[in-house]
Amino acid sequence: MKNNKKAHWEHVYTNKTPDQVSWTQSVPQTSLDFIHGFQLPNLPVSLMLVVGTVTW
């Protein structure tokens, strides 16, 4: 089972462009709005990193 998932994702990453997958966005507006909602003092968003993980 694990090999099937590995093969699937290798195929996706090899054969699709970022605009063909659902997890990329040109402007991640929801995440930006969330970060700005904390009203942090003058920190550029480029210094922040949003990381998502998937557990199989």
Structure write-up:
The protein is an all-alpha fold and 56 residues long. It has two helices and no strands. The chain starts with a helix and ends in a 20-residue tail after the last helix. The model has no long low-confidence stretch (mean pLDDT 77).
What does the secondary structure layout of this molecule look like, with pairings?
Blueprint lengths: L1 H14 L13 H8 L20
Overall pLDDT confidence: 77
Number of strands: 0
Radius of gyration: 16 Å
Shape: elongated
- Terminal Cα separation, in Å? 11 Å
Helix content: 25-40%
How large is the count of helical segments? 2
Q: Structural class of the secondary elements?
A: mainly alpha
Characteristic terms for this protein:
56 residues; mainly alpha; 2 helices; 0% strand
Question: Would you kindly provide a brief summary of this structure?
Answer:
By secondary structure, the chain is an all-alpha fold. It has helices spanning 2-15, 29-36.
